[in-house]
Each structure stands twice: as C-alpha cells, then as structure tokens.
Design goal:
The complex is a heterodimer of chains A (about 180) and B (about 180). With about 180 residues, chain A is mostly helical. Chain A has helices spanning about 15-35, 40-60, 60-85, 100-125, 140-145, 150-170. Chain A is built from 6 helices and no strands. Chain B is an all-alpha fold and about 180 residues long. Chain B is elongated. The chains are: A mainly alpha (about 180), B mainly alpha (about 180). Chains A and B meet through helix 1, helix 2, helix 3, helix 4 and helix 5 of A and helix 1, helix 2 and helix 3 of B.
Chain lengths: ~180, ~180
C-alpha cells in the first residue's frame, strides 16, 4: 500500500521524533552490549526499551507501547536484575564481561547490519503510509485479539503456565530428582 | 511516515543484538542481547502492521504474543542460569565446556597444559591439580574424566604423563562409548 510518497528528505515532524527516539534506542542498545558494568547494562536496557516504546507511540501502536513499558521495562528488566544479583555478578567495573572473540563478533554484526540495511533500503525506499491515530488503540486491538486471535491467545496462556511451572521446578532444589 | 525509518532501526537493533550474543561472556548479558533482537523483530512487526493497515491487526497482536513469549523465555532462561550457577559457581559461557570436544586445539587442552605440566602428580592428582590452575569450570571436566580414564585406558599404566591424558582419554573413550 504505497501512497504518493513525499521525498525521504526533509523528514516530517513525526519522522524527526521517530529518528530521535531511534537514535536513543540504538545508542542505549550499543551501550548495553559494550558497557563494562553489568548492572549498567540492565539500566541501559531500560532506556533502550523506553525509547522503543516511544517509537511504538509515534507509529500509533499505543497498546503495544504500554505493554512494552509494563512488561519489558517493568518486569523483564527487574527479572534480569534479580538474575544479576542472584548469580553474584561483579557489581562494579569488571574487565571480563567480554569473551575473546570480540573482533569476530564485530565483523559478523557489521556484516549483518550491512546486508539487512541495504536490503530493506532497496526494498522499502518508496514505501510510505500516513499515520492515522487510533489504529492501534486498546479497543480495536482487543476486539481483534478476542475475535480472530482468541485461540492463539488461549494457547499462549497455557504456554505461560507451563513456563511458570518449569521455572519453579528448575529453581527449587528440594523437589528435583535424585542427583 | 516512511517505512524505511523503523525498518532500518530494527535492522540496526538486530545487529547490535547479534554482536552482544557473540561477544558477551556473561550469560545474563547474552540474554539481554537476545531481548534486543526480539525487540527489533517487534518493531518490524509494528511497522509493517501500520504500513499494510491490517484489518485484523495481525502484526500488533503478534507483537504482543512475542512480548509474552519473550517474558516466558526469560523466566525459564534465568531459572536455567541460576541452576547452572548453583552447580558450577559461574555463569561465564567460556568456562562451561563440559560438552566440548577434548581435541588438541580445544580449550581444555590449552587450559590444562600449564597446570599438570608444572606439577606432574601421578594418578588421580589430575582433578585437584588441574582445578587449581585453570579454573572451576575445567575442574568439572577434570573430575568427570578419571572414571572414564580408568575404563578406557585399562591396558595403559595409570600414572600416564598428565598432559597426554585428556587427548588419550578422548581418543580411547570414543570407541568405548560406541561399542
């Protein structure tokens, strides 16, 4: 669905906001994978996910944005911090958070980025859509979930239950099998 | 809104996640990088949902499902990490080498070289001697090995030179396991 696309440059106000949020998200993500302090990595993850929630808001996906804030910023990062504390990770600056194959990882990542960015720019250079507010609000999304996607939704609740029980079984030491 | 902006941002976030998975050594940091990659996919889904104006909101509903599955994955993953930490006292991926091939160029051979070479202790001195040198993760393989050695190297004298042992054990134990 391609409309008569305006030029890619100069960006509109929405796109400027999106670009700023995207720069914040990508920069914070870069700090997550390069910082020397493991707790700071979790906190930069909060910044990255928050900026990404802002990106969803700009893209009119309000409900997804708030779910992102609730689950990722609220739950997932707290879970990661619990994991950091429970594994007695070094809280301060530590030099051995990176393995020895940093250069190979950087080469692979830059190659992945080059291939993906080239492909998507070639593929979607002219793709344009005007943003209509309210498309991703709770009401249409809820109607869609509970009409069309209700079976995957229920299956997902069973999966969550299974994951919960699995995590409990893995975590408790007194109910495991004989070692 | 041009579709290029969110899609390029998603590609960059995915590449940053790839770098983090490959370059980080702490398991929790690897899990954070996996979350970054999942978020890149979520941004793609939202962008294409907005672009295609899906009447069923398939993209945004799938984004919600991915968020839920990511939370479940992280819960089970952290439970596994904590179980590993309970058993090994470390969550560093470089040291969890129990399933590695004991080849001549592999990590255990290189790591155990200096320990036994410095102090050639006969017989079962392999486990503590190797553990004091390289570290606890390799110690685990060292302690697992002597019973296999005893079965596999029946015709050999038990006080075989220490630095030959991992290589010899690997070579002899493979046919023993196959038979």
């Amino acid at each position: 669905m391609t409309f008569a696309a305006p030029a890619l440059w100069p960006p509109t106000a929405q796109e400027i906001v999106f670009l700023l949020l995207g720069v914040v998200a990508a920069g914070a993500a870069l700090l997550v994978v390069t910082t020397r302090q493991i707790v700071h990595a979790a906190l930069w993850l909060v910044v990255s996910f928050g900026a990404l929630a802002g990106c969803y808001l700009v893209l009119t996906a309000e409900f997804v944005a708030w779910v992102q804030v609730l689950i990722y910023v609220g739950a997932v990062v707290v879970l990661l911090l619990f994991g950091i504390m429970l594994t007695r990770a070094p809280i301060g600056r530590s030099a051995d958070l990176d393995s020895g194959n940093q250069m190979a990882a950087a080469v692979v990542a830059v190659g992945t980025a080059a291939v993906l960015v080239t492909t998507v720019i070639h593929g979607f250079r002219t793709a344009y859509t005007p943003l209509v507010p309210g498309e991703g609000a709770a009401k249409p999304l809820g109607a869609s979930i509970f009409r069309t996607w209700v079976l995957p939704f229920e299956a997902l609740s069973v999966l969550l239950l299974a994951a919960l029980i699995g995590a409990i079984v893995l975590s408790r030491t007194d109910i495991g099998g004989k070692d | 809104m041009h579709v290029v902006y969110p899609v390029v941002l998603a590609a960059l976030l995915f590449s940053i996640g790839v770098y983090g998975v490959l370059a980080r050594r702490n398991t929790i940091l690897v899990l954070m990088s996996v979350e970054l990659m999942l978020n890149a996919v979520n941004l793609n889904l939202v962008a294409f949902d907005v672009w295609l104006r899906d009447a069923l909101h398939g993209g945004q509903v799938l984004t919600l499902f991915v968020i839920v599955i990511a939370a479940a994955e992280l819960g089970v993953g952290l439970a596994i990490v904590l179980a590993v930490f309970r058993n090994r006292q470390t969550v560093e991926l470089d040291r969890l080498r129990d399933l590695a091939e004991p080849g001549p160029e592999a990590g255990p051979g290189a790591g155990q070289g200096p320990g036994p070479g410095g102090g050639p202790s006969p017989g079962r001195g392999h486990g503590p001697g190797g553990g004091a040198g390289p570290g606890p993760g390799i110690d685990g393989t060292g302690e697992d090995r002597p019973p296999g050695d005893g079965r596999g190297l029946d015709e050999n004298a038990p006080p075989v030179p220490e630095h030959d042992r991992p290589r010899g054990a690997g070579v002899v134990r493979a046919p023993g396991g196959a038979a």
